[in-house]
Write a structure and sequence with these properties.
Layout (H helix, E strand, L loop, with lengths): L1 H24 L4 E6 L6 H12 L9 E6 L7 H10 L4 E5 L1 H10 L4 E7 L18 E5 L2 H15 L5 E6 L7 H12 L2 E6 L3 H10 L7 E4 L3 H5 L1 H11 L3 E3 L2 H4 L5 E5 L1 H16 L15 E6 H6 L6 H4 L4 E3 L1
Parallel strand pairs: 1-2, 1-3, 3-4, 4-5, 6-7, 6-8, 8-9, 9-10, 11-12
Antiparallel strand pairs: 10-11
Length: about 325
Amino acid sequence: MKKKLFCSALAVLVFAFSFSAQAQQVKMPRIGFIRIGSPPDPLVEAFRLGLRQLGYEEGKNITVEYRWTDGKPERLAAVAAEMVQGKLDVIVASGSTTARAVKQATTTISIVITAIPDPVGEGFVASLAHPGGNITGLSNLSPDLSGKRLEILKEAFPKILRLAVLRTPEEEGGQTKAIEEVAKALGLTLQPFDVRTQTDIETAFSMMPKRKTDALIVIGSAILFEHRMLLAELAAKSRRPAMYPHAGFVDPGGLMSYGPDFSDLYRRAAIYVDKLLKGRKPNDLPVEQPMRFEFVVNLKLAKQIGLTIPPNVLVRAQRVIR
């Protein structure tokens, strides 16, 4: 009897150790996430929320390695190469400049792009329906929306004539052309400023009075989003009406924005990661476009700097900061 009990106990122990060893051999998915900016970042938090909603817990059943370049795009190539060497399962690339660096670094690791103005025109995918290669993800439709932003700005402030356009050429994705077409129809003169650094932005604002600009529009880019607080501060000091590409620029103090709900885009990026981890291929996952749009007005700021938002414009806002 003792011998039988001993053998049974031994069998249980062997099974337990075997099960533990097998559990340890289960590979935890490893995701890479690259951003030009620096933490804290509300868009990264939206991605994390998306993962949690799908049942992922960082450090428990998924590993996410975040890399930041602190607003320095020249570091992207090295960061992307480092990530590829880490043998990740999926890399999330935020913005055109980042996506371009990751695309050049790997043709085998699945890439989820987020908030790309024109994925087809910029050469990331063959088509929205059939991306081809190792890339899929989400577009933000920025070229299509840029003209609409200008129309709203002109309607809100009919007297504007000369418009400063702040852009990062590498990330504008056709947005400038769309603005130029609408500006011509509205009789507006554009004064473009190519900006990549804090110094560039400060120089642009110092030049605006000399160029006699009476309003400004910020073209969406990851680099400019990193400097969103500086943009809001300088625009407020200049007392110029300003239009931004999405609410992430208005929440820190910008005047108004019209565009996709970027938090929703980043949350949905987690859905792509989940599908790829479960065996889907990038080419089988069409690039999706935004589903939620919002017009946001910072009425509190408008009053502080002496600007009046007409009631017919204000009533269309999905969100008003008072």
